Amino acid sequence: xxxxxxxxxxxxxxxxxxxxxxxxxxxxFLATHDQSPIPPADRGAFDGLRxxxxxxxxxxxxxxxxxxxxxxxxxxxxxxxxxxxxxxAVLGFDLGDSHHTLTAFRVEGESSLxxxxxxxxxxxxxxxxxxRYLDVDPAGADxxxxxxxxxxxxxNPFCAYGGSFSCALPPADNxxxxxxxxxxxxxxx
Length: 189
Fold this sequence. Notes:
It comes from Halobacterium salinarum (strain ATCC 700922 / JCM 11081 / NRC-1). The protein has one helix spanning 12-32, and strands at 50-51, 59-75, 83-95, 98-106, 113-119, 132-136, 146-150, 175-176, 184-185. By secondary structure, the protein is mainly beta. The protein has one domain (12-185). Strands 2, 3, 4, 5, 6, 7 and 8 form a seven-stranded mixed sheet that branches. The protein has a two-stranded antiparallel ribbon with strand order 1-9. The longest helix has 21 residues, at 12-32. It is globular, with a radius of gyration of 16 Å. The mean pLDDT is 89.
């Protein structure tokens, strides 16, 4: 699924409606599509993913800094050989009273940036044990420009739902030392 370009200036109601529609579309995909990671035998009982409540405080403007020398990097995976990506940019943002950075990667043939990350919910059972992902639309962004970083769109990799997938693990420096209680979760609370 491609990222939803969400300008930080969206009205609150329009933004919430777009997040809700995105979640409904994803649930429909997981319940019915042939490429769903939900095992076919389990799709009939699938009643949708678990999400944190939509929270505007987790939609932030991030300063986009393209990599000076984009380089190929290998990210470890949940199974199998490492996956190759291109280090594309660093995204600097404030969350609460703290400043954070995340490295964004480019996947060949994709226009969006791939941002795998962990946070303080990763190890406490609320989110997938290996981290979550964000897709960020850098359209038109240049060094120092801002891009929307919306953690309400944080999602679990397919390997969270099916054991036959190999998923990239977030690099250690893509850990946010805060609880990002936004996006997909794995517990039922």
